[in-house]
Every structure is written in structure tokens, then in C-alpha cells.
Design a protein that fits this description.
The protein has 98 residues and is mostly helical. The chain is built from five helices and two strands. The protein has a single domain, classed as Orthogonal Bundle (Arc Repressor Mutant, subunit A).
């Protein structure tokens, strides 16, 4: 299989997972700008907090998003993008998949 712009090492399964949901794309796009709470992400992406929370959990399950505060904390949970997700987001943008 040939490389597309040097993307032969890209985890295409994760790229497909992200782009198959508008909410996952919105969350990753927002977090690529910097850490944020679910409420901030929802406001910035004009999405319901419930959709953002579900997308965050799905992305966390794939280690694409990380919780930056202690797990026990219920209010003011701040999330950040992982290095893997940063690379995936770059591919999504350069390949114009979002």
C-alpha cells in the first residue's frame, strides 16, 4: 500500500472512528486549541453537553483525550488532547476529512 503524503504510519482506524461522529470531530477540534471543560467545549461547538460528554468518554476510551484533573473531581473537569490525537487531528485537517 502506498503512502499518502507520508501518512503510512497513521492509525486509520482511529481517524475513521473520529470522523464518523460530528461530536467527536468537534471535541477534538476544540481540544486541539487547548484544554477545556465539557461545558466550554459544548458552548464553543454549539453542542449539547450530553453529546460532548459522550464524545469525550468515547475518545478517552481510545486514549485520544485525557482528564487533566483528579478522577474523583466531578465539577470543573478539564480535558486535554493526547499526542496521538494531535497527530490524528493533523491528518484529518491535512486530508480535509472534517
Amino acid at each position: 500500500m502506498s503512502s499518502v503524503d507520508g501518512t503510512d504510519d497513521v492509525p486509520w482506524d482511529d481517524v475513521g472512528f473520529v470522523i464518523s461522529s460530528h461530536y467527536r470531530v468537534s471535541v477534538l477540534e476544540r481540544l486541539s486549541e487547548g484544554p477545556a471543560t465539557p461545558t466550554q467545549i459544548a458552548t464553543d461547538s454549539e453542542s449539547a453537553v450530553a453529546h460532548v460528554s459522550r464524545a469525550l468518554q468515547e475518545l478517552r476510551d481510545r486514549s485520544l483525550v485525557e482528564l487533566l484533573v483528579p478522577e474523583q473531581r466531578r465539577k470543573g473537569r478539564v480535558y486535554g488532547i493526547t499526542d496521538d490525537a494531535e497527530n490524528i487531528w493533523t491528518v484529518i485537517q491535512t486530508q480535509q476529512m472534517a
